[in-house]
Amino acid sequence: MTPDPETANEDAARERRFAAWNHAPRRLADGPAGGTLAGWLARLAEEGAGVWDLAGRPDLYGDGVVTALEERTAALLGTGAAAFFPTGTMAQQVALRCWADRTGSPVVALHPMSHPERHERGALVRLAGLHTVHPTAEPRTPTADEIRELPEPFGTLLLELPLRDAGFVLPTWEELVETVTAARERDAVVHLDGARLWECTAHFGRPLTEIAALADTVYVSYYKSLGGLSGAALAGPPDLVEEARAWRHRYGGQLFQQWPAALSALVGLERELPRLPEYVAHARTVAGVLREGLASAGVPWFRIHPEEPHTHQFQVWLPYGAEELTEAGVRQAEEDGTVLFRWWEAPGPPGTAMAEVTVGAPGLGWGPADVREALSAFLARVPGTG
């Protein structure tokens, strides 16, 4: 079969981008898909030895290192139990299915920008037979009044913390407590989509145990924020978690061996979790410098959202096409060895693009002057900004 030229060109462009980003020595954060297989294996062997006895046997159907990870996660969140899942998509579908059976209601109230609605191909409806209602379409977490005034009954309220597609935004602690209280008033259970819950402590000024205690169940990711290979956990009461294990098996999530993902997750909990508040603080510095730099450069329109990041991730919007901004970023990585942005077409006005900026361990070495220099070098490569 003759290769499709358009597909071949797209593949080549993708390979060029990844090569440029992966080989650039200066970046604000390590990408989840960065590095090489050999590098990941060497890193897992080196770092894994600090959190687990590598002379032991691999796990079999979730014992050993996987059980240890589940117990560590439950302790960190202050829940009675936790179950490891290969994906967060599966974990949340199972959680919401279990709650639907227990509450007698197949209706889930959640934001239309939340992950199950935007990124799971309608799985809640097509696989679990659930139905969804939206308390609000505003780019923020639903308020207590919106929960109270929702005209339709629902059995479960799902809150994504932070709400990623809205800009990694969080409510205040008081607003969150009031929203949860409003759901309880309607006899609903509360499930937290906490894929990035780990980095919420700085914004709320509360420990993970206190945040998780607001909900009946919590899902957390091991590769978002923590840098693990993959995997997630569903945490909550022991009886519900045990029921979730049965559904995990039915969904095909009872894998024979999962030790690489579990081992990398333990490394993340040991090394990355304690540093997340530091990343959040530095993200606020980076966002401020970018705002000042874009204004000084005379860019006709831009947005840093939120103005002060709630987590160690935030959005940057510019009035140019994603293709030209991506080319500028790839050239900067190839020529200067610096990665500042990764762009895609924004779901907004035509001719705008949005980048999600993440500040991790590598970014802590960037002072304000470094950010200004990288921004200036990037803009110099964007047509029409010189």
Automatic annotation (TrEMBL):
Keywords: Pyridoxal phosphate. Pfam families: Beta_elim_lyase. Its cofactor is pyridoxal 5'-phosphate. InterPro entries: ArAA_b-elim_lyase/Thr_aldolase (IPR001597), PyrdxlP-dep_Trfase (IPR015424), PyrdxlP-dep_Trfase_major (IPR015421), PyrdxlP-dep_Trfase_small (IPR015422). GO terms for cellular component: cytosol. GO terms for molecular function: L-allo-threonine aldolase activity. Belongs to the threonine aldolase family. This is Threonine aldolase.
